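Before the break, one more example. Copy the sequence into your notebook; we will annotate it together after we see the structure.
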Amino acid sequence: MERICISFNIKQGSKEEYVRRHNEIWPELVDLMIQYGFSNQTIFINDTTVIAYLECDGDYLELAEKFGKEQISIAWQEYFDDIIIDSIEDGISTRYVSFEEVWHLE
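Here is what the structure looks like once it is written out:
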C-alpha cells in the first residue's frame, strides 16, 4: 500500500463552494475510486490551500493515470476547473504538487 499526499490551491473566495461540492460528491466517482484501490482519502483545507491524503493498493502513478482517463474522473476534474488554480511551468501543469513520504507512525 502506498500513502499519497498532494497539495493544490483554489481561487480566493471559493472555499465554501469547494467544500459544498465535496459534500455532494458523486457516488459513482467514489465507487470508481474504490475500484481502483484508492482508500482512506482525507482532504484538508485552509483558506486557499488544499491538502489531500489517500492510500492506494498498487502503483499509485500507474493507477492514477488510468483513473484520470475514466469519463467520470474527467467530468469531476472539469467540474472544478473554475475553482482550482492550474498554472503551467515549462509547458507542464503544476495543478497538483506531490509530497515525498519521509516518516510514518504505525
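The chain has a mean pLDDT of 92. The radius of gyration is 14 Å. Try to locate both features in your own notes.
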